[in-house]
């Protein structure tokens, strides 16, 4: 008798892919779901549409604020966490609409082409990487100008390879963290909190609202960069050749 269990990891992947494609996509994109779930899915979609339209400046005045340099702005403390998350959601929703063969998103202030979502995500990624009034990359280690006094205990203390003496918690703070020098260790890949609503940024270790590096700042950008890299490897596309984005009125 043939075993009902898969014999290899490849069969498991095929099974998971089958259920993902046949259940998830059919369920959400094609509308083939139980009628009792319809109102829940419509509510999720309504909230998603509302947020995306607000980011695009097309939500009848209830829009996400922007800095003069074009950065989406929510609040002073670690604003780039919202920028990176918004860029990721814009990228995912772009994929969602394309998979549903929906060419436009109907916002209160008029229809928006799906490629405009990815264009906005790209402008936010460009802003983070240095296309901003400060001409600074807010990803540490990327480009010629980036934060060198990141609010990070490990990065601000000398490497064990250079000094193998004992450094206690208090000593690490008093002797190293409080110094005004550049960090002895470059926290490559970390995205800091970023500038304020006027695109101003002060590279100071004590300025934790702007220089603290968080994993949830960087994590969403992995998906955004992956998508942009995928498109860049294909034949030239208008979506990646844009250098600016025309926002709607606030």
Structure in words:
The chain has 250 residues and is mainly alpha-helical. It has a domain at 12-135 and 217-240. It is 45% helix and 5% strand. It contains 9 helices and 4 strands, in the order H-H-E-E-H-E-E-H-H-H-H-H-H. The chain has a two-stranded antiparallel sheet. Strands 3-4 form a two-stranded antiparallel ribbon. A hairpin with a 5-residue loop joins strand 1 (65-66) and strand 2 (72-73). Helix 3 runs antiparallel to helix 4 (114-128) and helix 3 (80-99) packs across helix 8. The chain is elongated and about 65 Å long. It starts with 8 loop residues before the first helix and ends in a 9-residue tail after the last helix. The relative contact order is 0.14. The model is unreliable at 1-26 and 242-250 (pLDDT under 50).
Features of this protein?
two-stranded antiparallel ribbon, 4 strands, 250 residues, mainly alpha, elongated, cellulase activity, disordered N terminus, 5% strand, Glyco_hydro_9, 9 helices, 6-hairpin_glycosidase_sf, disordered C terminus
Q: Report the uncertain regions.
A: 1-26, 242-250
Write down the overall geometry: elongated
Overall pLDDT score: 81
Tell me the radius of gyration: 22 Å
Order of helices and strands: HHEEHEEHHHHHH
Beta strand count: 4
Residues in β-strands, percent: under 5%
User: Mind summarizing the main beta sheet?
Assistant: 2 strands, antiparallel
Helix content: 40-55%
């Amino acid at each position: 008798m043939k075993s009902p269990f898969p014999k290899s990891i490849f069969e498991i992947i095929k099974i998971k892919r089958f259920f993902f494609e046949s259940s998830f996509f059919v369920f959400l994109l094609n509308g083939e779901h139980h009628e009792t779930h319809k109102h829940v899915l419509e509510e999720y979609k309504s909230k998603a549409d509302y947020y995306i339209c607000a980011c695009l400046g097309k939500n009848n005045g209830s829009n996400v604020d922007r800095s003069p340099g074009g950065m989406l702005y929510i609040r002073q403390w670690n604003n780039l966490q919202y920028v990176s998350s918004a860029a990721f959601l814009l990228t995912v929703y772009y994929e969602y609409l394309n998979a549903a063969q929906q060419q436009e998103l109907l916002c209160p202030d008029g229809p928006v082409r799906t490629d405009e979502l990815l264009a906005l995500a790209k402008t936010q990624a460009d802003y983070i990487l240095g296309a901003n009034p400060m001409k600074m990359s807010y990803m540490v280690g990327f480009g010629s100008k980036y934060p060198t006094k990141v609010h990070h205990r490990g990065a601000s203390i000398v490497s064990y390879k250079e000094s193998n003496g004992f450094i206690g918690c208090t000593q690490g703070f008093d002797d190293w963290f409080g110094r005004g020098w550049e960090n002895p260790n470059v926290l490559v890949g970390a995205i800091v909190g970023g500038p304020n609503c006027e695109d101003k940024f002060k590279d100071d270790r004590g300025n934790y609202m702007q220089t603290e590096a968080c994993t949830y700042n960087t994590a969403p950008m992995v998906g955004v960069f992956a998508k942009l890299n995928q498109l860049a490897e294909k034949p030239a596309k208008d979506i990646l050749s844009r250098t600016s984005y025309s926002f709607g009125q606030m």
